[in-house]
Structures are given as C-alpha cells and as structure tokens.
Design brief:
Elements: H1 20-25, H2 31-40, E1 47-56, E2 63-69, E3 79-80, E4 83-85, H3 97-113, E5 123-129, E6 138-146, E7 159-165, H4 167-175, H5 183-191, H6 198-206, E8 211-214, E9 216-219, E10 224-227, E11 247-251, E12 254-258
Length: about 260
C-alpha cells in the first residue's frame, strides 16, 4: 500500500500521463494568464519553476535521486530533486507555461546531474505554491521519471553531492537530523513511500490528477503550520479549528504530517 496523499485533487492544467496527445488536447496556459491569478488574489507573482523526481529500482525498493545544494545558494544545504526556474528559452512558439515546465525540468536535470530525460515521458503529479509571505517564492511543477542508465555527475559548485535514497530512508535521515528537506520535498517523499517498483509508482501517479498544493501558513503550538485544501483551517487561516486535517507542522522534533479526515 503506497503512502499517496488522498487529497481531493484539482487539475493543474496538465494530463498526468505525459504523452504528446494529452498535451495537445488540454487548454494552453500562457504565462500572463497564470500570473493573473496572483494579481486577482492581491499577491506578488511567484517565479515559475519545475523539478523532477528521478527514480530507479533497487533491492530495497524505488530510490529517488537527491541532490545536496551548496550552502551559499538559495535553499542552501538542502537536499532537493533536480530542478530550477523556468527560463525564457524554455518556452516554445505557443508560449505554453506547462510545456515550458517540462522543458525546464529536463534542462535542469541535465545541468545539475548530467542525466538526459525524455520530456514527453515525464509524469506531472503535483503543483506547489508557497505562502505569500515566503521570502523565496517559486511556483513549482513536480514531475517524476525513470532514470536513464547514464551515471550521475554533479558540478560540485551549485550541487556538491548526490545520493540515491528510498523515500523512507530520506525521511528517516531527515528526522535524525542527518539531512535537511524543505516541506514540498518532505511531503512528496512521504507520498511516494510504499511502492515496490518504479513502474508501479509511475503507473499510479499517471492515473491520478495532479494535486495542487496552494500553501496557507498559520502559527501552531510548536511552530509554523503549512495547510492545504481540505484542512478545516485552510480558508480562515485558523489552525485551531476542529475538523479534517491536511497540514504539515514544523516542530522542534521535525516535521509532523497530518492528513487525518481529509479524503
């Protein structure tokens, strides 16, 4: 049984299968239309970005490629998936933001890990927007893909180290204080626990609608609380309201994820 978050998903505009036919059928998402949602919500637009969970099979289950970022850069010291901002050069003639996200994901994976991925085989499974108060605010499309056979090579500048980890191992090491993970990475790894093979994981992800994680932030008893759609306190920002939970709390002992009562 997988650990996939059973949040009621809203469609992020992209079909999770990643095939060319699906891309052609959906409505295009120009960047100006995307930015308008922030303006209407009286928020400063986030920077569009993309990331890829690169996966391989192992004797202990699927492993994800984790990259250790240079401590002097944004998200310094964190362990992350390959990825980065969407550049102007990533857009094709249609100006479609989601096609650009795929292109950026492939480009960043090659730049950071020297791996070449097929853009059309990326499985889009989630979309994350940090709270408006976040100092570094990237709206990020998350993809998953099977790793090619090529060896991973990092530049030892932006990325100083890499390791292959099962999702459960990465969470254990984070809880032990051995590695640092930002909230979207932690939740993604949590949701990917429990699969036997990469094919099983990608099949499950491709059969689900991509989930939107539009983060609302609240103060908790032990630290900040990230809340998402389905949490009783999501709309009001009051984390103390009784009811279903869909949140990640930052505590002195690490992250605490609660998805109880949210279906």
């Amino acid at each position: 049984m997988s650990g996939l978050d059973n949040d009621s998903a809203s469609v992020s505009g992209d079909d999770a299968s990643g095939d060319a036919a699906s891309l052609a059928q959906r409505e295009l998402l120009p960047i100006e239309k995307w930015r308008q949602q922030f303006i209407e919500g009286s928020e400063a637009p986030a920077v569009p970005a993309a990331t890829v969970v690169v996966l391989r099979d192992s004797a202990t289950g699927p492993e994800a490629l984790m990259l250790h970022r240079n401590s002097r850069l944004a998200f310094g010291g964190m362990w992350v998936f390959p990825g980065g901002r969407i550049d102007d050069e990533d857009y094709d003639s249609t100006g479609d933001l989601l096609v650009a996200a795929r292109t950026a994901a492939v480009r960043e994976t090659h730049e950071e890990a020297s791996l070449v991925l097929d853009r059309e085989r990326l499985v889009h499974f989630s979309y994350w927007v940090p709270p408006a108060a976040a100092p570094k605010r990237f709206a990020t499309w998350f993809f998953a893909a099977s790793a090619p056979d090529d060896p991973v090579r990092v530049d030892e500048a932006e990325i100083i180290h890499h390791e292959w980890m099962t999702p459960s191992e990465a969470l254990r090491r984070c809880a032990a204080g051995e590695i640092e993970l930002i909230a979207p990475t932690w939740v993604t790894l949590h949701n990917l626990c429990g699969f036997a093979t990469v094919d099983e994981m990608l099949t499950m992800l491709s059969q689900q609608q991509p989930r939107d994680y539009l983060t609302h932030l609240a103060d908790g008893a032990h630290g900040p609380i990230c809340m998402w759609h389905g949490d009783a306190g999501y709309e009001s920002g009051d984390a103390s309201l009784p009811g279903p939970r869909h949140r990640l709390e930052v505590t002195p002992n690490g992250y605490h994820f609660d998805n109880s009562g949210c279906h």
